[in-house]
Design a protein that fits this description.
single chain; 376 residues; Gyrase A, domain 2; eight-stranded mixed sheet; four-stranded antiparallel sheet; 16 helices; Phosphonoacetate hydrolase; Alkaline_phosphatase_core_sf; Phosphodiest/P_Trfase; hydrolase
């Protein structure tokens, strides 16, 4: 049986003394730190054991990131211990009700229309858009001292508020040295009180998007991460368990499909959201469903799998539990999931994303599988 990112925090809670199921079998300990390396895919790591010998030597299992394999979804699934069909952050971007109609909402940046559009914190409060209780709230209620080792911009971001939903001590960490220092500070205490820390590092994902996964730039960042984790494994006390994982892997695009340049894909379509590997297509009218489905299936026959919302829900693409009506409405009427190394780009609205070399979100092993690396 393969476990998922949603199994990590329930196991952490058990290791920290809560009477809950421990799917990963973590041993009890005083402190636990979960370090999320953005873009750390299990398949990518396995191909570069020579670059990252410490990470590779401490892999205990492989996890499914969940679908779609993208940061906003994965972080929320990690924090809540549940897939996106439950928590409702169902993609990089998706449609939400707004002022009597609907608009595209970017969940990673918490903005409307695009990654650079108007800030949505006021109009779409994170605690309202994602209402489920997080596992970190449960830890805090159990008396665990919560810490965050994260970049300063994430402290009060919409995604942080939506996913974690619990106050804690913040250790600002913009680079690997600060991540190491923050994690060490969490574990540097002699009392018996229990501590949990969520730590995050983005540079591997950035290098992959800009230069491609497995590029020299990407490999350099991977080597730096490996060195930092080796230091932590040496320095952290036995009373602190360090877990390292990723939110998704990545593929390098080799086939670019420009959705903006294909008029048949826009007939009957109100808007297109998601990202280059997973597209949510929303209809102007429900009666257009069969025509839109047929057009997308024909146009993308060699580049993507096309399915309806109902098919995706019935086949549990977004998780085993059916979404409630609010979450279901966020899923595209039609969904296009890129195959192999194809990308489905929308350059007019997403110029930066469309120019990237590395992408993720779909269901290939390189995107879906992430390692779980443990100190104990």
């Amino acid at each position: 049986m393969r476990y998922s990112l949603a199994d990590v925090l329930p196991s952490v809670a058990a290791a920290l003394g809560m009477d809950v199921h421990n799917p990963l079998g973590l041993r009890p300990n005083r402190d636990v730190v979960v370090l999320l390396i953005d873009g750390l895919g299990a398949e990518l790591l396995a191909r570069h054991r020579d670059i990252a010998p410490t990470l590779s030597a401490h892999v205990t299992t492989t996890l499914d990131a969940g679908f779609p394999a993208t940061t906003a979804v994965s972080i929320t699934s990690l924090a809540l211990g549940a897939p996106c069909a439950t928590h409702g952050i169902i993609g990089y971007s998706f449609a939400v009700p707004h002022a009597g109609t609907s608009r595209v909402f970017n969940a990673l940046r918490w903005r409307l229309d695009s990654a650079t559009g108007p800030d949505a914190l006021t109009e779409l409060p994170p605690e309202d858009l994602q209402r489920r209780r997080s596992r970190i709230q449960d830890l805090a209620a159990h008396g665990v001292d919560v810490h965050y080792v994260i970049p300063g911009y994430q402290r009060d971001s919409g995604l942080t508020r939506a996913a974690f939903r619990a106050a804690g001590t913040v250790h600002p960490a913009a680079d690997l040295d600060q991540v190491r220092a923050g994690i060490r500070a969490v574990a540097d205490h002699s009392g018996t009180g229990r501590r949990f820390a969520y730590a995050y590092f983005a540079d591997l994902d950035v290098a992959g998007h800009l230069h491609g996964p497995e590029s020299p730039e990407w490999l350099r960042v991977l080597a730096e991460i490996d060195s930092a984790v080796a230091d932590l494994l040496t320095d952290l006390p036995a009373e602190c368990t360090l877990l390292v994982t990723g939110d998704h892997g990545m593929i390098r695009a080799d086939t670019v499909v420009d959705l903006d340049a294909r008029p048949p894909l826009h007939r009957g379509v109100r808007t297109i959201a998601g990202e280059a590997r997973v597209r949510h297509i929303y209809l102007e009218n429900a009666s257009a469903r069969s025509d839109v489905f047929a057009a997308w299936t024909e146009e993308l026959s060699t580049a993507a799998t096309v399915l309806t919302r109902e098919q995706a829900v019935d086949e549990h693409w977004f998780g085993p539990t059916p979404p409630d009506p609010v979450v279901s409405a966020r899923i595209g009427d039609v969904i296009a999931v890129a195959e192999d190394h194809a990308v489905l780009v929308c350059p007019a609205r997403e110029p930066l994303e469309s120019a990237m070399l590395g992408h993720h979100g779909a269901r290939t092993a390189d995107e879906q599988f992430v390692p779980l690396i443990a100190s104990r």
